[in-house]
Design goal:
single chain; alpha+beta; 3-stranded mixed beta sheet; 1 helix; about 30% helix
Length: about 60
Amino acid sequence: MANTYAIQAGRELRVLVESEKITDEDATLLSWDVAKKIEETLTFPGQIKVTVIRETRAVEYANK
């Protein structure tokens, strides 16, 4: 599918995916799948927010 990076930030899990390799609909399904897997395998109080971020980065450097 796509390269993903998970960053655990307290009660939030962010999954970064390349926008060219996953659609908006797939991102929604991925967040649901990850949340369900967490519910099935972990015991925790409260809730954990799962956010899938589709992003395109443009980086340029100014040199002098």
